[in-house]
């Protein structure tokens, strides 16, 4: 999405083309949450070892790039495992347990998601953090869905620029996610949305991934006819 802002500023893309790519990018970023939910921690050290070996000893740049991708892939899962283990003690925290019991305000969930994602400027990373919390039973899905909606809004911070067209692109990105959030808050409040998600998978990390995917795919379907 940041690259799209640059393309629009230089005239390589017009705004109508840009909104289509932004919609696609929002769907594409959900793949990280799917990978995380698969829990491939067992192969992470192997991926890091092979990747590091290729980075150090491969002569072709293309192979070095493949090595970097493999090493990064392994580090993603090693990092998730470290994060899950680090958050495990929170289950015994009286303050945190009380917060979970009272965590039912949609607006608070949206603000938390938007704030965290705005700071780290990556919805994929913030969703990964949420998956780690949920895997330890620290965040119920009924509250996590609102955090996910907020995370999609928070990621728009990275597209805000100074030129006129970059501002327009940022506004399109923000509108896409805000309208999607309004639609899904209504769905979540008046329909058994979380029960539908739980019926699809018993894995809480996959449930969060499914919410992230459904949010972006449905939002795209709703708003694509109005792209122009």
Write a compact overview of the structure shown.
The protein is an all-alpha fold and 228 residues long. The protein is 77% helix and 0% strand.
Keywords:
about 230 residues, 12 helices, about 75% helix
Note down, in words, how this protein is organized:
This protein has 228 residues and is mainly α. The chain has helices at residues 2-9, 15-28, 31-37, 44-57, 61-87, 94-101, 106-120, 123-135, 141-154, 164-190, 193-200, 204-223. Helix 4 (44-57) packs antiparallel against helix 5, helix 5 (61-87) packs parallel to helix 8 and helix 7 (106-120) crosses helix 9 (141-154). The two termini are 18 Å apart.
According to DSSP, the number of beta strands is 0
Mean pLDDT: 85
Helix percentage range? over 70%
Determine Rg (CA atoms, Å).
19 Å
- Helix/strand class: mainly alpha
Number of helices: 12
Hey, roughly how much beta strand do the residues contain? under 5%
What's the story with the biggest beta sheet? none
What are the secondary-structure elements, in order, as H or E? Answer: HHHHHHHHHHHH
| Coarse morphology | globular
Query: Span from first to last CA?
Result: 18 Å
Stretches where pLDDT is under 50 for at least 5 consecutive residues are: none
């Amino acid at each position: 999405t940041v690259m799209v802002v640059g393309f629009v500023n230089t005239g390589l893309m017009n705004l109508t083309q840009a909104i289509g790519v932004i919609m696609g990018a929002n769907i594409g970023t959900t793949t990280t949450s799917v990978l995380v939910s698969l829990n491939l921690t067992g192969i992470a050290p192997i991926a890091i070892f092979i990747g590091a070996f290729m980075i150090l000893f491969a002569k072709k740049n293309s192979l070095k790039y493949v090595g970097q991708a493999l090493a990064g892939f392994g580090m993603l899962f090693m990092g998730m495992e470290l994060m899950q283990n680090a958050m495990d003690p929170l289950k015994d925290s009286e303050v945190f347990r009380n917060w979970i019991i009272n965590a039912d305000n949609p607006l608070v969930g949206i603000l938390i998601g938007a704030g965290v994602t705005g700071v780290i400027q990556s919805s994929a990373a913030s969703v990964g953090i949420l998956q780690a919390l949920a895997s330890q039973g620290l965040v119920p899905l009924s509250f996590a869905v609102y955090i996910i909606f907020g995370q999609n809004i928070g990621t728009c911070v990275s597209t805000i620029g100074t030129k006129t067209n970059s501002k327009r692109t940022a506004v399109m990105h923000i509108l896409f996610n805000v309208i999607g959030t309004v639609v899904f808050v209504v769905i979540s409040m008046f329909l058994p949305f979380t029960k539908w998600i739980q019926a699809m998978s018993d894995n809480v990390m996959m449930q969060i991934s499914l919410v992230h995917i459904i949010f972006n795919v449905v939002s795209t379907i709703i708003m694509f006819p109005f792209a122009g």
